[in-house]
Amino acid sequence: MRRVVLKGRGDFDEWRNAARALACAGVAPEDIEWSEEGGEKQLFWERDVLPPQPVSGSRSMTVPPAFIDLASAVICHSDPVRFFLLYRLLWRLQSDKSLLSVASDEDVSVARLMEKNVRRDAHKMTAFLRFKEVGSGISVNGRRKFLAWFEPDHHIVTRKAPFFQRRFNDMDWMILTPKGSASWDGMRLSLSDEPCTKPDLTDPADELWKTYFANIFNPARLKVKAMQAEMPKKYWKNMPEAELIPDLIANAEQRVLAMARREATMPPAFHDKLQAASRNLQTAPSTAEGTWEALREQAAACSRCPLHAKATQAVFGEGPQDAEIMFVGEQPGDQEDLAGRPFVGPAGRVFDEALLAAGMNRAELYVTNAVKHFKYEPRGKRRIHQKPNRGEVEHCRWWLDRELELVKPKLVVAMGATALFALTGWQQKLEDARGEFIPLEGGRQLFVTVHPSFLLRLPDEGLRQQEVERFRSDIARIGSELASSS
Length: 486
Description:
Blueprint: E1 2-6, H1 12-24, E2 32-36, H2 45-48, H3 65-74, H4 81-93, H5 106-128, E3 131-133, E4 145-149, H6 157-167, E5 172-177, E6 180-184, E7 189-192, H7 205-216, H8 224-230, H9 245-250, H10 252-261, H11 269-283, H12 292-300, H13 307-310, E8 325-329, H14 334-339, H15 346-357, E9 366-369, E10 376-379, E11 382-385, H16 390-407, E12 411-415, H17 417-424, H18 430-433, E13 437-439, E14 445-449, H19 452-456, H20 461-485
Parallel strand pairs: 1-2, 4-5, 8-9, 8-12, 12-14
Antiparallel strand pairs: 3-4, 5-6, 6-7, 10-11, 13-14
Helix pairs in contact: 3-5, 4-5, 15-20, 16-17
């Protein structure tokens, strides 16, 4: 009997390395005792259980891709039987490659149930984890700091950390759990499988959140069993709004009756203010034609393409009207659409950092986009960026041409392929034109580089750092070129 003790904290490679050596050596499932670190017998795979020697005539182990996906989820389960179960499935798959498609098989059924439990636990983490702001001010990198405590049933922190990185990319945060931790500082995602203790968390925003929750609670649609099935009570203790739930449930019937007795009321006061502002906007004298302000007003009412219908507002360029350099990006993002200003989101911070490193002042530059409205796909409560198509870019080119006529920059910087197409009509690879100063009509020059959002999408940390430095080098060349030509 071989004994294998693993840390068992959701590390798929840890189990796979042990299982592969044992299986290739022909060690049957019933001849292995799997257990987790912390038991009575402290044996460790790398130190105490030497990799067995392959038996004569042994063949390499192969599994279908579906097994990798299944095992990667099951290994995060907290039941110690998972190690033995996965190894037995691995063993049986060598003689029956279609085993995973047999839903009635007991091993397959148990593994699928474990996978479902892990995925459900991960979903609950995204739904019920609550960040709380810590510290009294902004961190050294200009970002706010947040901390969260969550108590998962399984080892899902490493599995879900990339989701929180994407969702909360613009703030520094740390998630602590009894089964490990994750943190994000704007550049690096750090993971640990060491258990954490619950911190003492208080946040003044809790009261605001409870006020919001109480006001969106609809007693007429209350279904207690369905609510508790979706939001089990075990999560309530770490959710500030949960302390309101018993009272909201108890008084739901009285609130429904009160709603029925309440007569229709006038719209809130701010509706009248919005309507009055709209009337004043329609009757206000228009800005003198041919000015930047007039162009901005006209762009705010643009309906040249369907993008205006879903966007919050047009995001026009900003900067001095006599700027020597004009930077052109692709389109506004989620945060730009809400703020009405270009490059204020995560990509904007990468852009600002590159300007700072190059000694350039953004206040002296004109910054705009090839497309003035945010194109996105709704996905739950999020708005996922979609690249504008050729027709949308061409419809919006009229506004970009007017900006060029008014600002008259000496140098135009195309950040990304969409900006390059909008400025030149070229559809060549961006890399073919990157880093070159290209003469344009009217005596101005064009410089091509990547869009800052490209850097944020790179999954490999090492490659991302290389590309960030290359982007900063491009920006530095722009500053040097302008200084030498002045």
